[in-house]
Model the fold of this input.
Amino acid sequence: MLKIKNLHASVEGNEILKGIDLDIKPGEIHAIMGPNGSGKSSLASVLAGKEEYEVTEGSIEFEGKDLLDMDPEIRAREGIFLAFQYPVEIPGVSNIGFLKTAINDIREHRQLPPLTAKEFLQRTKERQKLVDFNSKLVNRSLNEGFSGGEKKRNEIFQLAMLEPKLAILDETDSGLDIDALRIVADGVNKIQSENNAFLIITHYQRLLEYIVPDIVHVLAGGKIVKSGTKELALELEEKGYDWLKEDALNKTV
Amino acid sequence: MLAQVDTDFQEQITNTFEDLSNGVFSSEPESLQNWRKEAFSAFMDLGFPTIKNEDWKYTNVKPYLKSNFTIIPNLQEIQNGIPAKTENFFGKELSAYTVYVVNGKINFEKSNVPDTNSVRIQEISESYATDGFLSRLKCKRDYSINPFLALNNALFTQGIYIEVEKNFQLDKPIHLVHLSDLDQEYFQLAKNVVIARQGSHFELIESVENTGHNNFFRNASTEILVEPNATFNHYKLQKGSENIRMVEHTEVEQQADSQYNNYTFTFPGYQFVRNNLNLALTGSNIESHMYGLYLTGGKQLVDNHTLVDHQQPHCESNQLYKGIMMDKSRAVFNGKVYVHPIAQITNAFQQNNNILFSDNASVYSKPQLEIFADDVKCSHGSTIGQLDPEALFYLRARGISESEGRSLLVNAFAFDVAEKIENPEIRELLENEISKTMTGVEY
Ligand SMILES: Nc1ncnc2c1ncn2[C@@H]1O[C@H](COP(=O)(O)OP(=O)(O)O)[C@@H](O)[C@H]1O
Ligand SMILES: [Mg+2]
Done:
């Protein structure tokens, strides 16, 4: 589904991603862990099409198409979804109104008819329940005055509404208490299927107890320095990242 | 000398004043005649404002006065009873007591005046004997920063007087529709006086349109008194023909426990608009709200100057002005808040946010706070920016196109002011107009 090859990307002239290879197949859940500043969010931003990032080398294919050639909205319509680490507040733009526009833009791109008002309402109710998202928040301005946890939950609600093929979750677990974490994880597990894939960026292995990854990657210094099974997450939790950093450093020398 | 305009127009101003002084003015009360003389000599000293005048620094009126303008004091003779076109003006669909002021004169035949003795709507020239009218009209104003007002006071022959009786609540707004349809390049001098008597409650909408094919300059001034406990909502809907240039000077005196809300919405159209809105809070427990939205396009110049003068304690004023500048348009916001030493426990807020929607557009924003009391809650903020790129990216990352995203964000920015409008019909009209104006606009 997603093939990243030797991806190098820089922002304001600083190289942040220094040669990433990643292959995600339908039905898989990948986790990316790594210390602060290692480039996890940068990778997510490059995938979503943030213009500040300049890809200097390498390629990204999404379902056989060149992803780097697409504007952010086209990527979204093709099926990429990013749950932001820091969702922005947009006063005056209604949560539900903007979702309706987004869904129908995506459907149009896929040559599907727009959802009827009834279908849309039905889907809203259903997905809201799925991630236990407060119906009062659905009708408010986008993230305006939401708590940290509410913002994160809204990201997952949007994920459930938009039904992407590849969902990237950037530290969705931070700012969530244990109950909220469980609800979000349950939601993701219900959405997960043979046809979609998840890339879960996290700092802690806590979330991975609930959403069990097929593969865990460690990102350090803009590179994937190690990949392994879910046990790797536990190892990281115990030992921290320092041993890996040195490992990576040694490799490049 | 009046360096700003050509000698023909200077002569015309002088001659008009002389003619009127020997004509209709000579039958006016003597105090009024003296007041006019004073205004005339002030104007002759000042001339039209230049950019050397601090209050007109960013607004050069010279190009807007360059036309073969004619001051036509005795319009009745010219009008010849031909009814003006009334098909087109912004706000026509609003349900209101619509009062057509055609070339400065009320057309009672077409108008729908409230059928009650509690509301007076009449020509100014018939109002001199009315209690309290003259003293309101003749309130002392600072001509040095308002030369247009000096000229207006010296020469106006037309205008409307509106008075709403004590404790009367009008069920629908009064909609003053200032229309002109003359073939000449018409320089209009209009005066309005509005008195909201104690405890009264009403709304006034004003629209201006020119259906004539030539340049039209409107120099208008309005004196408003809001008596104790009265509530007055005042809407200025500024959208119309591109040959309109105007200076709208509004003076409001608010007395104790009163509320005055001003909503000034300017859309692409009029070539030049200068709004002066001056509030004097002369009692306690007053509330004042001033909401402005200027959505400018083409080569438009829109200038809002406000002043809130807190003269007494326990009052609250709130200004929210937002601007979106497109194309080659320019906007100016200058908001002054003055808090006198005795005006303790004052709340005065001012916010001016601007978005430049084009590289060729510009805006000057200047808050001026002069606070001489210590127990005051005052805040002001002024921003000039582009749309938030993070917000735009967020929308695009959900599948919304860049242009659609921009339009969503810009609507959200402007709706923030529109949602303050109490009258639902006016709110809807303006929200639709915002959407219409901003949809499909390319950055
Ligand atoms: N817009 C930016 N401009 C400059 N540097 C940036 C920008 N965004 C991220 N960085 C830098 O890139 C590095 C990786 O950041 P990020 O991808 O956010 O890491 P992570 O998500 O792993 O904590 C950091 O050193 C950060 O300072
Ligand atoms: Mg991050």
Observations:
- Chain B has nine helices and 19 strands.
- The longest helix of chain B spans residues 30-46.
- Residues 411 and 434 of chain B are 7 Å apart (CA to CA).
- The interface with chain A takes residues 388, 390-391, 393-402, 404-405, 408-409, 411-413, 415-416 of chain B (CB under 8 Å).
